[in-house]
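Notes to self after the Tuesday call (sharing in case useful).
The group wants a holo model before anyone commits to mutagenesis around the pocket. I volunteered. Ligand is glycyl-adenosine-5'-phosphate. Logging inputs and output together so the record is complete.
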Amino acid sequence: MKKEENKLEKITALAKRRGFVFPGSEIYGGFAGTYDWGPLGTELRRNVVNEWTRAMENHDNMAFLDSSIFTAAKVWEASGHVSDFSDPMVTCNNCHTKFRADHLLDTIGVAADEKMTEPQINILFDEHRAKLHCSVCRKKDFSKVFAKNLMATSTLGKFSEEDQEVYLRAETAQGIFINYKNVLNSGFYSIPFGIAQVGKAFRNEISPRQFLFRKREFEQMEMQYFVSPKEAFVAYEEWKNERMAYYDRLGIKKEKLRWKQHENLVFYAKDAWDIQYEYSFGWNELEGVHYRGDYDLNQHQKFSGVDMTYYDEKTKERYIPHVIETSTGVDRTILMILSDAYKEDEMNGEKRVFLRFKTNIAPIKAAVFPLLKNKSELVKKARDIYKMVKKDIPQIMWDDNGNIGKRYRRQDEIGTPHCITIDFDTIQDDSVTLRARDTGKQKRIKIKEIISHISA
Ligand code: GAP
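Result:
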């Protein structure tokens, strides 16, 4: 466990050192729960979003949406987030510091299911309260467990005295529900069909932690599949199978993924399973695949007065469609990819760190080097090759800094699958050295073979 905890620190340090992820507002001392994507993180994020989008595009009946972050407050009242979306908290009765009850229980090895109701977590907390102490004043005296709402708020308006409080969306899913009728009425879709969306979500997480795992501003990739009540369970099983199989495209080891059914269903769910990944700090949720029934559309029908029913031409029935949801986070996916890819070994008698990304995920597919940067004929040839490859494969990098050994180490650290070196032989016979990241093996190939080699 110690070694694995250390791994998270190593990944966090590498991510900053090489420009994947920077702590938010760092030059002002940081801003908890926020991170900024650096140059390589931006490429990695793009690859992750593209893979997810492609998986959704494989379905003929998939619509895409980009809904707004500012939404009417009623949306969140209808969805149940205003009344029910909360974390369990306790206050130290001595020094008044506030803690998440489940995190305190975690310190003595008691796992509280995230989806537990307030009475359930109160019972669990009372069973163990004698063993729990405040990390600030060391006293063992806590309040009862109470709920702290997670919705992030802001204000909008013309004049500050008239500003109204607004919610920042806590999930992208509600943007999909409130547009379900609009998408249907556009005339291109009929039940069953899905609406997929990638976008930012915001939560007032009291203790953001574990790097990208729990952030206050994060990105979701969500899909709601609208289906007839009779076909919902079959569709649910199909989506579960598809979503687990999908992680192979990201190169994730099968044994690091598992299913976990929710013991305590959240207020909207009829059945709920999570795909968990074994992060360095233990098994944790990566994606939820939930059968939400007609809860959300029913609620929006009730609160908005808009008819959410659907007339099914095939069955001649009118019903409110049921919803299967697949919901995963870009940030947790990237933390998983970094954790899975991170490797340390020894090469040519030297310790090295490398990221074993699958090619489709690697932010840089190949780096192009002139053997010597002060030989103009080598640099010119290398530049020509770089430009030629970039036309087909934009995610490539020019690197002429330091000696070849240093360039290899640097590219290994950012997970570049191939390095291409241009030397004096290249000028004679149009061949280059292609070096593979995982094995360090080198071979000569012709310039015209580069594209097929590095896109494999
Ligand atoms: N629409 C359903 C929904 O939002 P959720 O389990 O609260 O369900 C779905 O969130 C996914 O969003 C999670 O599986 C996770 O990947 C990501 N996620 C949730 N909270 C997050 C946070 N604070 N930081 C990073 N990712 C988060």
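Two things stood out.
The mean pLDDT is 94.
The chain has three domains: 2-85+152-339, 89-149, 364-455.
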